[in-house]
Amino acid sequence: MCHVIVTCRSMLWTLLSIVVAFTELIAFMSADWLIGKAKPLSSEDMDNRTRGSQEPYHPTLGIYGRCTRISHMQLSRRDTLCGPYAENFNEIASGFWQATAIFLALGIMILCTMAFVSVFTMCVQSIMKKSIFNVCGLLQGIAGLFLILGLILYPAGWGCQKAISYCGPYASAYKLGDCSLGWAFYTAIGGTILTFICAVFSAQAEIATSSDKVQEEIEEGKNLICLL
């Protein structure tokens, strides 16, 4: 018989698992990993703007995508054009970034799977006599290791020609040159830290769902058990 067990700690772990997965996925898909050096406005831009709005813009570069701004001669505004610069995996600018993409993708796949599984832990608490919380926590820890490897390898690709075109000639491995780090890189780091917190917290979720109070509720014949 299926017992639906909901506790404060198990729900927090489930929510955190979902948040972590989406955080890493959004960071991976973003083009705001590097903020390039300022680009001067074209003569058309100078003609279409007031002096106060004639500021240089900063293009951004991601692992496989980029954002640039294009001007419309008949419109007094600039549009940001974002999209992948690489049509396939082999066109990613650096071998280090290809490795980063692989490790991040593996980590995100595991996290998304665990986020999906975590929803069903309310009904299923064990698989083959193994705690599903402990199994998920272990896999989340492995995903965190993949994410760390990807983030370590990413700065090694700053010396590729694509990064140099954005960051200037002084850009090289682990040296930003004229670029700065964008929000996506920091988000990926934050998500990685939360991944390990989530992995550790899975043990608390397991303890909460197997506590004496839960067992007493089961013995009383209750199928829906909610404990704070």
UniProtKB/TrEMBL annotation:
The chain crosses the membrane at residues 12-35, 96-120, 132-154, 183-203. One of its GO terms (biological process) is single fertilization. The keyword Transmembrane helix applies. Keywords: Fertilization, Membrane, Transmembrane, Transmembrane helix. It is found in: Membrane. One of its GO terms (cellular component) is membrane. The keyword Transmembrane helix applies. It is a multi-pass membrane protein. PANTHER family: LHFPL TETRASPAN SUBFAMILY MEMBER 2 PROTEIN (PTHR12489:SF19), LIPOMA HMGIC FUSION PARTNER-LIKE PROTEIN (PTHR12489). This is LHPL2 protein. It comes from Ciconia maguari. The lineage of its organism: Eukaryota, Metazoa, Chordata, Craniata, Vertebrata.
